[in-house]
Amino acid sequence: MKKIIDYLKNEFNSYSRNIRIALVVLCALVGLFIIFGIQILFWGLGYTDMSNLYPFGQWIIGDLGLVALGGGAFTTGFFLYIFRVEKLEPIINSTVLIGFMCYLFTLVFLVFDIGQPIRAWFGYTYPNWGPHLMPQSMLTEVVWCLTLYFCILFIELIPLPLKHKVLDKIPALHYIGHYMHKLMWIMAAAGTFLSFFHQGSLGGGMWGVLYAKPVWFDPMYFFWVIPAAMGGGTSFMLLCAYIAGKVMKKEVVPIETFHTLARISGVMLIIFLVTNAIHVYTQATIYVPAADRRYVDIFGGYYGLWMVVIEFLFTIAAIVFLNLKKFREQERFFLAGISLGALGVAMSKCTVVLHGSSVPNFPWRPFIGYNPTIQEWSVFLGGLATMVLIYMWAAKYLPLFPHLHKHENEEH
Amino acid sequence: MKKIDRKDFLTLTGGAVVGGLTGTVFSGAPFDALQWLVEWTQDQHRPPVGREHFIRTVCDQCRDRCELSIRMSDDRAVMVQTSNTACPLGQNALQLLYHSERIQQPLKRDGRKGSGRWTPVSWDQALTDIAAKVREKAQANKRHLIAGISREYNLSSALLDRLVAALGSRNSYYEATLESLTTAALGGVPQYDFENTDYILSFGARILEGWGQPNSILKAFKGWKERGTRFVMAETNMSRTASLADEWVPVKPGTELFLALGIAYVLVREKGRNSAGTGFAGWVTYINDFTPEQVAGITGVSAEKIREIADAFSRAARPVAVCGRGIRGISSSAAEITAVYALNSLVNTRAASLSQFAGLGNPPMSQEASQSYDANEAKRGLDEFIKDGNFELVFINGANPLHRSVYGENLKAKLENAFVVSVMPLVNDTALYSDYILPSLSFLETRTSAGDAVTTPYGQSRPAGQALLDLAAKIDEVRGAFPWGGFAELVGNAPAMRPAGNFAFNNEALKSQITLLKKLISEDRNYPLSLIPCEHPLVGDGDGLAFPYVLKNIDNYTYSLGKLWVLINRQTADAEGVSEGERIDIESSRGEIGSVRAHLTDTVAPGVVAIPLGFGQRANTKYAEDKGVNPKEIMSAEIDPLTGCADWWLTRVKID
Amino acid sequence: MEHNESANITRKAPAMRRRWGMAIDLDKCTGCGNCAIACAQENNMPIFKDDSDLPKRVTFLDLMKVTNDRDAQYPNVHVAYIPKMCQQCEGNDPSDPKPPCVSVCPVVATDVGDDGVVSQVWSRCIGCRYCQSSCPYEARAFNWWKPRNEGRFQESLNPDVSIASRGTVVKCTFCSHIWKRERDKAVANGELDINAVLYTPACVASCPTGAMVFGDLNDPNSEVSRLSRDRRAFRLVHTIDEKPADEQKRLRGIKNYPNPKVYYLTSQQWIRDMQRFR
């Protein structure tokens, strides 16, 4: 026991001051996550600020955001393995890990969000398949797609630990890792297919089918969420790797990789912008008026129209910074571009959930505000903190950035 | 024997595992386990199933005496089947019957008054103790310091009146209800023939929201449209009753009396109508001040409208003018009750009459009791008694004056120094200050005129009347006054209503009161706003809050998330700088109540703050406890010279 | 109403046996609250100390207080109460009902039966609240806390309705357990056609003014069916009903509409005006 404590102490003290502060904060958040998570699981969702009038809250925003941003993994994999954009090779391990964690924590948040976690598996045993091949409930689709894609990401992830110094020395494991890597395009293809599917469902189809709710109903939802995930997700992958490099004070990924992926992200964000504009246009001119309401009334309510405006401003700024060479190659604008790209997509998810639930269903009811409680914040931020810690651990002990090791090996 | 080598070992182990797994799968155990898991995760509680049958009974909560059919599951009452009769009072009966805080056996105070700490005692001990106290007061020549306070006229309150009188005290009081106020002002309770009337003129009485005898009114209401009955509602704020009326006459706050006087003026002076009421000649003399033009200035109703109403009222075949502002918490001055009832007598309508509660008659008294009874005068009403009266021993029969009277604080101080006996099924604010609480029953546990009780009585509870009879049996002096074998014997011959004589105008009292009311409705620079009650129909003036299913149906602008809401007119709120949802304090000359939320709506008149009654209770079970504030703390406390009850309807206030 | 010309609607497969619907005459509703109490009693609503916590409380029938103070100023104001339960939506095609909440359930905990009633299996529900989000009438309630009927309140529990677990969505089913009860009785009495059995939900049975009427919308002679075609009839915030027939047809081509089976009747224009968002 004492050994373990000493080991942890030494380990902790081996870091710089800033990292130590970050570690303390992150561990504190994980602690809160555990405490309040237990409270939520055992005593119910009464401790959240969600209510019968506001049934979806922060965790759903988290789910949507994570799924969208985690979509960067399948996009990168798609371009690397299918289109053979070899320049993306140095970042793929990082993206796969992030993608894996995003889906893992989507499932974790979902488990917290449903009222009966011990019945969570009913989604597999009593799925709501419709009359045709397509599942009838978007959530059924989400559950299945997420699970399958989660498995694929898990398989994609296997070569990563196998490349660890110790494991790599065992010949069998070395070959398994090697050949799995070679066959990864199959996984990438399957992952891409599934990702398209559930991006559409969790991101868009989920809301687009709620025909009785003018704030959500729009068949276009399905189409703008996929480019959102591809654009915003790749920006997010870049952002994570960029921050990792800054923290480690090393070049973790070659600059060409950054720029290649940034260009992909920029192009995808253009498609996102166009589809999003079409979505807003169709909703504002066809579907909201069809329900006898006005778009500005619905989206200009409690949270204000500015959320939609900011969503667009962020996307446009990101498009400019990531697509124009002169901006992309300046570090400041590159950073701004990838941040705004990820934020713009995250913002669109906030708009969907926050506006969606706050809009009154009856003309005599007011708009509803929502203030997440400490329990919701703890589970949400604690989940994110866990992801950061895993990422940090992987960056230190696993060959997350092969470029870095290549570099180190050269130095030795 | 061949040595088992590694290969063989692996083969054997593998075979065993595969075989075992196959066997397990085919044995069905995994499926049973899954089935078990499904059932375990689908846990849900099904209430015990019993034989379904129905029992008929009669609701005793108002004079309507609705017949109810109770759906039973074995011996549990599970539903009040109403077949289009009865009101929420009847529907709530099961929640009282099975209330989680019903008192099981007599409770003796343990600790400071108001602390809510009790020791359960036996009936015999409780009654012996109380009887000893009563005898002690009688021997100390303090008979006039014995009092009884009842919620409403019924058999048990008649028994309490008789007990108090037999002991030589006149101090029997009733909380301010429609019945007690009208009886004090008119000498009887007005009976309206809502079924056959063709013109209804209501002065603030919200007759369609649970006022009076709800079921018979609602039944009659079904036919009003078809029969062409015209319903005119004079009220300050828009209520559901006003909205359902054919015409709503908005009046300035607290001026219903003057509207009635204006209409009376037209009937007497312009249409030459006369009333048969005693003292009418005297009353007529001060009608002179209330020409329609003058009344228009006071009430805000135009002179033409007043004449139009008077005209329609006088030409109707069977019109009724209805008094008694509010739903369950009624507050009307004697002047107003008289003026409104005078309209009925001016048109000589057959649709309104007065009747009285018969009571149980005067008891035989001992000589001392008789002397004491004759030597002391009663106060005119409960509020006056609380304010100016004295008592050392008081019986509380289902009443809650501590919460409902504007003199609740005074009563609290007096209860601290008196011996208090409460008879009720749930501990309310007043019972909190008792020395003894005797548990009584709901009507589902007692024999009614429809037959036997629906269920067995809870714990050791007894009917309130039985508890009083048992107490009387322990006091030698009054035993003779209660010759009945038991409460059940009395139920069959419950005192009925009987017609009251002609009503009288009590001119002296009325005249001074009218002057006073005129002052109250005039502008006040310090307190520019008018506070007017607005009841939630299910909560009423407080009793409803003890029922959880009532709590479930309180809307978001009455009480939500721990805050009571008041309604303020939009313009007024603008002028006062109050915004929607803001927390405000309300202050009158009597004090301040704090932290209510303001909802801005034009359903209330300019210059008016409407506040729900019945909230801000300290006890009355945990469901009513500490919810909101009690506006009675700051409401007008001017005591009516005839009813002896405070007229709290209109209070001048300001807001912070 | 234009869209309701073919009152006698049968489901493609299997046939719709009943199409239970309700009509509530707001001209007769005084807002007494009897229906709400009867509903809570019949359906074993959980009991909490603070059930005045409006956003999280569990009720099937919500007595909504509606005023027109949005459009009018004192004294041109009105007040009404609108009893609102599950409106049993059926989507554009009554012969193939598609309520907004049914298709979204990931575990088939909610479905629409051949009597047109949207059911909810409390023990199947995983509590994702997707149906709640999809409901335009806020008719579904989630058990944010463990449902409790503490102490003696348990004695008044109705044996026909089970108590849901914490974290599940519950809803009004037009008291369909009463129909089951009545049909069981009919079977016991030798009745063969159990679908011929009629019943009355608790709220309707308790209405003192007879403002609520319940029956089969497929039966053109039933009172509810007659009332649904009354010119005073409207449906909650379902403003498409007010549009001309060809416009309605065009709009229904664009999207599904809830098409609830609860009709409200009023002679007051202001109540109709308040159904529209301004």
How does this model look, in words?
The complex is a heterotrimer of chains A (412), B (656) and C (278). With 412 residues, chain A is mainly α. Helices cover 75% and strands 0% of the residues of chain A. Chain A has one domain: Formate dehydrogenase/DMSO reductase fold. Chain A has 18 helices and no strands. In chain A, helix 12 packs antiparallel against helix 14. Helices cover 36% and strands 18% of the residues of chain B. In chain B, helix 6 (155-166) runs parallel beside helix 19 (464-473) and helix 10 packs across helix 13. Chain B folds into 5 domains: 6-41; 52-97; 107-177 and 378-496, Rossmann fold, CATH 3.40.50; 194-350, Dimethylsulfoxide Reductase, domain 2 (3-Layer(aba) Sandwich), CATH 3.40.228; 523-655, Barwin-like endoglucanases (Beta Barrel), CATH 2.40.40.20. In chain B, the strands form 5 sheets. A 7-stranded mixed β-sheet of chain B has the order 5-4-16-15-14-6-7, with helices on one face. With 656 residues, chain B is an alpha/beta fold. In chain B, strand 19 (559-560) and strand 20 form a beta hairpin. Chain B contains 25 helices and 24 strands. Chain C is α+β, with helices and mostly antiparallel strands and 278 residues long. Chain C has one domain (2-273): Alpha-Beta Plaits, CATH 3.30.70. Chain C contains 7 helices and 10 strands. A 4-stranded mixed β-sheet of chain C has the order 8-1-10-9. In chain C, a hairpin with a 5-residue loop joins strand 4 (110-112) and strand 5. The longest helix of chain C has 13 residues, at 176-188. The radius of gyration of chain C is 19 Å and the shape is globular. The chains are: A mainly alpha (412), B alpha/beta (656), C alpha+beta (278). Chains in contact: A-B, A-C, B-C. At the B-C interface, strand 3, helix 4, helix 8, helix 9 and helix 23 of B face helix 1, strand 2, strand 3 and helix 4 of C.
- Named at the architecture level, the CATH assignment of the largest domain in chain B is 3-Layer(aba) Sandwich
Give the averaged pLDDT of chain B, no decimals. 90
Radius of gyration of chain B: 30 Å
Oligomer state of the chains in this structure:
heterotrimer
Under CATH at level 1, the class of the largest domain in chain B stands as: Alpha Beta
* Shape, principal axes of CA atoms of chain B: globular
For the record, the CATH architecture of chain C stands as 2-Layer Sandwich
Q: What is the string of SSEs of chain C from the N terminus onward?
A: EHEEEEHEEHHEHEHEH
**How many structurally independent domains of chain C?**
1
Strand order of the largest sheet of chain C: 8-1-10-9
Q: Considering DSSP H and I runs of 4 or more, what fraction of the residues of chain B is helical?
A: 25-40%
Largest interface: B-C, 81 and 68 residues
Q: How far apart lie the N and C ends of chain B?
A: 102 Å
**Can you tell me the residue ranges of chain C where pLDDT is under 50 for at least 5 consecutive residues?**
1-13
CATH topology of the largest domain in chain B: Rossmann fold
Overall SS class of chain B: alpha/beta
Given the helix and strand composition of chain C, which structural class is it? alpha+beta
